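Much of what follows relies on a compact textual record of a protein's fold. Each token is a code from a learned vocabulary of local backbone shapes. The record below shows the convention in full.
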Amino acid sequence: MTPDDLREAAAALAAQALGLPELARARTVAAYVSVGAEPGTGALLDALCARGVRVLLPALLPDGDLDWGAYTGAAGGEGSLARVRHGGRMELLEPAGERLGREAVTEADVVLLPGLAVDGRGLRLGRGGGSYDRVLARLERAGARPALVVLLYAGEVVDRVPAEPHDRPVDAVVTPEGVRRFRTP
């Protein structure tokens, strides 16, 4: 995709996601900053902040788990995000401010998840690090029931992905072209 294609897809993804009733009523959203070829999340994150939504972003810990910090939006200044390289892994943009702890995600009304693919059962294929598997297990242990939404391109919605016993289905997938639900809100 060209840079213009990527910008257009990110804007379309934000528009589709912002139309979700779950995001319309959310007070806190756990999200992420897209990297590499992932669908762009910047426009969506800033739109959520503009709505007054508390946006939590992950910070990768040495054990592969995630801590969380608040994102104040692009209007919050240059210091809202920091570039962090994790050993031989890719460089990530993480919240620059105070860390809120691993459990902060349990306060979210919606959790936006990255992925490589999602299938017709609503099962998400991640990058294999297990960070979001830990997040989903933490939510379950805490009895938290946020809406789980994966952000992908249409071609990443497939018939079937490999599944493990610990995998949990998501509620919906949002692509620049639309929304597919696996569970009614």
User: Anything to note?
Assistant: The mean pLDDT is 90. DSSP finds four helices and twelve strands in the chain. The first helix runs from residue 3 to 18.
